[in-house]
Amino acid sequence: MRPSGQKRVVLRDMSIRPVTRKRNQGTLEMHANGLRYTSKSEPIDILFSNIRNAFYQPCKNEVVIALHFHLKNPILIDKKLVKDVQFYREVGEVQTDLAQVRGRGEREEAEREQTERRLKKKFHQEFENFYRTIEEELGQRIMFEVPYEKLAFPGPAFVLVLADVERVHFERVSFRTRNFDIVFIFKDYKRPVHHVGAIPNKHLEMIKQWLDSCEFRYTQGPLTLQWKMIMKEITTKPQEFLDNGGWSFLDEDDPDQSGEDSEDQESEFEVSEDELDEAEESTEEEFDDSELELGDEESEEEYEEDSDEEGEDWDDLEEQARADDDEEEFAVVSAEYRHMGEEFL
Questions:
Q1: Which domain holds residue 86?
Q2: Are 33 and 47 in contact (CB under 8 A)?
Q3: Which of 76, 102, 277, 336 has the fewest other C-beta atoms within 10 Å?
Q4: Where is region (Disordered) located (predicted)?
């Protein structure tokens, strides 16, 4: 049922995610109490009262323009319960055939770009009119948000409400790795943590700054933790978890933690064998370096003892000094060339 005295508010040629089996395009129409998506398959209804978050993604740098709805309670689509539904329309070419591009002339390419710009402008007007009409009809009950591109990073698509999250932990944060993982720990400890993996390291500081701006607590560590075991331990023994400092074991730089406590916590929760092997290799390298330094000191001491025991006359000492000067000049020149080589690598 449409709002009384109002024209039909509709978006045509829309596709839906999650994708249905028939993959048909349909029509998204606004009604008094919700949205209805109609295609050759069964209609899909979304009540306004069931929408928790609404998003509008323009097509400035994207090939699709979309409206995304994160629901309070799941609905049935194609015999599956889902809490995220997206309606979208393709604007540009998803895939470009290089043979076709080479075959096009400059004039045809310019006409295609003009047509795509006109379509983007048209679609923007249609989508903005659609979601603004919803906002006007519902007041403050539903407000559409636009994703902030500067905070984007590659990863799987998901919607997570920060109000449901207690803290964030960064895993595999190390100069040895190119990627890191994010773990979102919810306030409801019975809810499994949400894990986002393989995020490039260049996005780490940007995400930390955003969490700081939200005054949100986060920690980081070099290893991957067994979260299923951790959450089970917390839910079965909550008082013991609080008595032992709560989440303080996630703070790798906590000055109040003793070495013995950290070792006990690591043995309890750290399960990555590959990372333990890396740690062992790094300790072996440090031990080798210390042996080399000790070896150099011992050789110097032996040289001094030998020089004291063996007496030499003045002529031999002067020849030895001239030879040492020549060697030092050669060493300095070699070091300068080596330094120049490093600069041009």
A1: 10-147
A2: yes
A3: 102
A4: 243-329
